Each structure stands twice: as structure tokens, then as C-alpha cells.
Amino acid sequence: MSITIIITVITVAISILAFYNESFMDKLIFHPYSVGRNNEWYRFVSSGFIHADFMHLAFNMFSFYMFSDYVEQFFNMIFGASGKLIYVILYVSALVACLVPTYFKQKNHYNYRSLGASGAVSAIVFAGLFLQPTILIGFFIIPPIIPGFIFGPIYLAITAYLSKQGHGAINHSAHLWGSLYGVVFLIVTAQFMGNYNVLSAFMQQIRMYLGM
Fold first, then answer.
1. What is the mean pLDDT of the chain?
2. What is the DSSP letter of 169?
3. What CATH number is given to the structural domain containing 186?
4. Per the count of CB atoms within 10 A, which of 28, 57, 73, 189 is most buried?
């Protein structure tokens, strides 16, 4: 069984349990105030396995599914026997990394809470886009017409703007930092642990796409 399926099953199961158990949800949710005051550091990870509702869960798991299988296969290819472990490390560490800026910004705000796998999913999606920069992507209801290397910067710019505005219930900061973390993690580990130059391959694919 692939790591992708295991992560999906675990996330769906825990999320559904949390939907019907408010105290369980409250125990797992990312609450910066409790993290700092009560040393509940586990919330960096546990919050990535719960979601606000079925729509939130479905959207994250669908986005995860669209890219995770390819990324997992690529990791198995360049890292060999260590591929699955490194893939798990990417996902779990992205859950933590994407929330670090949020923690420092919100650690004194008792009413702030955040949940969802969006940061880790963003890391996987952008790792996939970096591996396949010419894959066609769409914006929500727009069909896949934009190559990934164009979609990526547009998405990051919009996410950075929304994060700066700070409105709404969505943690755009987690999306932004998760996306960037996924790319950095991929480049560094592939170069030093897999002896594969991801950046060079990325540029080569774009040049071929543009006919250069």
C-alpha cells in the first residue's frame, strides 16, 4: 500500500471522528496560545489531520491525490529504499514548517485557531509542480490551461497578498509557507541525498516547452 493512501485514510478517519467529537477536535486543533503556554507542540502535527467540514476535507484530499502519487513515485525512484521515509518526512515536516510563522504571529492571541492539511498538501503540490513544470493546471472552475511554472508564481502571489490582508478563516500563510517549503525540501534532498539536480531538470523542461 502506498504512503499516499495511508496518509489519506488516516486523515479522513481522524477528521470524521473530530466532526462528531468537539473535545477531540479542540485537543488536536492548532492553538498557538496553548502551544506556547502549555508546551502542546504536538498540535503542529495533529492539526493537519483534522478539518473544518467534509468540503474542507474533500478539497484537501483531492488536491493531495492529484499530485501525491507522482511525487511519491519520484521519491522512490531517486532515493531508492529510503524514498518512502523521505516522502513521509516531507509531509510531516511540512505540517510543522507551514505553521511556524503563524505560531509567532498568533501565539498571544487566545481566540486564534487553525486546522487542516493545507500546508502539507501545498508542499506536495508544489513539489509536484516543480517536478512537472509544464503540466496544465486550472484555477478552481477554470479547466487545466495554464502550465505549472506559470500557475505556481500566480498562486504564490495571490496567497501572499491574502495572507498579508489577514481576512477570513483560511490560513493563507500556511499555504504560502507550505508551498515554498515543499520546493526547498525537494531541491535540497534530491541534490544531496539522491544526487539529482531538480533545479536543472526544472529549467530544462521549461526550455523545451518554450522551444528554446
1. 91
2. S
3. 1.20.1540.10
4. 28
The three-point CA angle 205-207-208 to 5° equals 65
| Crossing angle of the two packed helices 54-79 and 83-97, in degrees rounded to 10 | 140
Q: How many domains does the chain have?
A: 1
Q: Which residues pair with 136 in a beta bridge?
A: 147
Closest CA to 126 of 170, 68, 78: 68
Backbone angles phi, psi at 10, to 5 degrees: -65, -45
Q: How many residues belong to the chain?
A: 212
Q: How far apart are CA 102 and CA 121, in angstroms?
A: 17
Residue 47 domain boundaries:
3-210
| Cα gap 51→11, rounded to integer Å | 9
Q: How far apart are CA 168 and CA 210, in angstroms?
A: 38
Q: What is the DSSP letter of 16?
A: H
Q: Say what the pLDDT of residue 187 is.
A: 95
pLDDT score recorded for residue 95: 97
